[in-house]
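Before a colleague's protein record goes any further, I have to sign it off. What it holds is a sequence and that sequence's fold in token form. My question to you is simply how this chain folds and whether the tokens agree. Thanks in advance; the entry in question is below:
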Amino acid sequence: MDKAIVTCAITGVLTDPRNYPAPVTPQEMARESKAAFDAGASVIHVHFRRLEPGQGHLPSWQTEVALEVVAAIREACPGVIINQTTGINGADISGPVACLRAVRPEVAACNAGSLNYLKTRSDGGWAWPPMLFDNPVEKVGAFIAVMKETESMPEFECFDTGIVRTAASIARLAGYGRPPKYNFVMGVESGMPTDPELLPILLRLIVHPSRWSVTAIGRTEIWPLHRRAAELGGDLRTGLEDTIYLPDASRARSNGELISALVATARGAGRSIASPEEARIAMGLKHA
């Protein structure tokens, strides 16, 4: 079985640094990336945050911020693979496109379909106002065109089974000539659940040969899903964007702790962990 490529999602669009140990500044991003890298991560999935005082919980598409963050991560983690987010609501994609062209990441997240992004509270009300994460075909195609320009491999983010089934067609019709790299996003309440039994079904729906991974969002219920993904030959991902809970239900103090737990889970399932250079070869990326 192939070695598992491990990704760390060091911070996200929703993880509030006022409540969780999520990095914001370039120095914090580099520190957390180094901890994850040393624990076994070859890929760092990065969101950029606003650097003004009190604004670190908000996303930034300033190219100066993006360049500074990525430069700090690369300096701290020689040979690391950068996976840049592109997720944005609405038709105006100029912000993430500008960052793609500035950073030219090896991998770029490409949200492959739309989703009503919902979460309910225990009383049955909405945890936040119902929101459409809109990713129509034209928007996805525009992102893929820029990713071809920057030589960034799209990672097709699939929040539901219908998106899994159509990702390859969207990619092909947009001019992407390789089998998609799939990322099954599981745990969003209005999308796919964190159910390990769903994985064999999803693997019947994808185009082969393709690399695939799981983004598992939640608490301790995510760890059996990680184990099953490892057993089935998938690549692996965790980080403070996805969870703050370790398998023993304690709260993680850093991304490094989460990656250490994920690597232990993978090895318990009989998987070895790919080095950054091995990950580049397996994904068909250029050398560092």
User: Anything to note?
Assistant: The longest helix spans residues 26-39. Residues 6-283 form a domain with the TIM Barrel fold (CATH 3.20.20.70).
